[in-house]
């Protein structure tokens, strides 16, 4: 018999995790790889344990279930979403989840979801997960996952003062210090709220509420002074659009 598939159980409620673990113990096709109580722990444990399947709550502290998946590198494990909020069902199915468990559910309902996961695992071609990542790439960002001094940290957008392209990634200048993420600036720009962030240079974006004043610079460019005392160049190419968004157009 093949080795059982490893399952990571992710839920911020201890009783919900305990219930899932009891149900999983009755199915020899699966083995508990671990458990996580919030989104940040889920990312860390998925990266270290490499489970075949995530049974993943959607509404959690730190990161939502959808944000957990976006923080993970391909190939992703199979996903069964689990939540008490049925308004997320459409998003879950659009994200190509194996199944969607609406709490409270019983052992028979979980078994049907596990049956689907086991069948799909045997012949998976990657298409559902590719569709998942495509869907997630269209959703607006609410925060960014960064590596802090104490490990993974969910950085709220309000903490970001400006973003600067740096090599193959982006340097985030924030009120908590500087962080780097391995993402393209243009991809972040497309998903950041337009009423809060604006491009000021081909290699940088700025948070509008972080700008204190605009000073003359060189050859039609300007110098933006930010509330933390730092500054960045406003290219003349983006000057008109910036002023309009900043409320001076």
UniProtKB/TrEMBL annotation:
Entry-linked Pfam families: LytTR, Response_reg
Coiled coil: none
Signal peptide residue numbers: none
Annotated ranges, domain Response regulatory: 6-118
Residues bearing PTM 4-aspartylphosphate: 57
This protein's UniProt keywords: DNA-binding, Phosphoprotein
Domain HTH LytTR-type, chain residue ranges per copy: 144-248
Protein name: DNA-binding response regulator
């Amino acid at each position: 018999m093949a080795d059982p598939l490893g399952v990571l159980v992710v839920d911020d409620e201890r009783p919900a995790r305990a219930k899932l673990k009891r149900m999983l113990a009755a199915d020899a096709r699966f083995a508990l790889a671990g458990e996580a109580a919030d989104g940040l722990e889920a990312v860390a444990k998925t990266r270290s344990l490499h489970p075949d399947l995530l049974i993943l709550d959607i509404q959690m502290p730190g990161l939502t279930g959808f944000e957990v998946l976006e923080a993970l590198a391909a190939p992703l494990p199979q996903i069964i979403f689990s939540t008490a909020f049925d308004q997320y069902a459409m998003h879950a199915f659009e994200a190509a989840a194996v199944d969607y468990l609406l709490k409270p559910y019983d052992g028979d309902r979980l078994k049907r979801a596990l049956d689907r996961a086991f069948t799909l695992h045997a012949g998976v071609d990657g298409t559902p997960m590719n569709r998942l990542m495509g869907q997630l790439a269209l959703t607006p960002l609410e925060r960014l996952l960064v590596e802090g001094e104490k490990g993974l940290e969910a950085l709220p957008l309000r903490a970001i003062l400006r973003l600067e392209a740096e090599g193959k990634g982006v340097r985030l200048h924030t009120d908590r210090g500087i962080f780097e993420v391995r993402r393209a600036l243009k991809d972040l720009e497309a998903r950041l709220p337009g009423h809060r962030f604006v491009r000021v240079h081909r290699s940088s974006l700025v948070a509008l509420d972080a700008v204190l004043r605009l000073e003359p610079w060189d050859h039609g460019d300007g110098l933006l002074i930010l509330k933390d005392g730092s500054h960045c160049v406003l290219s003349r190419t983006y000057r008109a659009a910036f002023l309009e968004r900043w409320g001076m157009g």
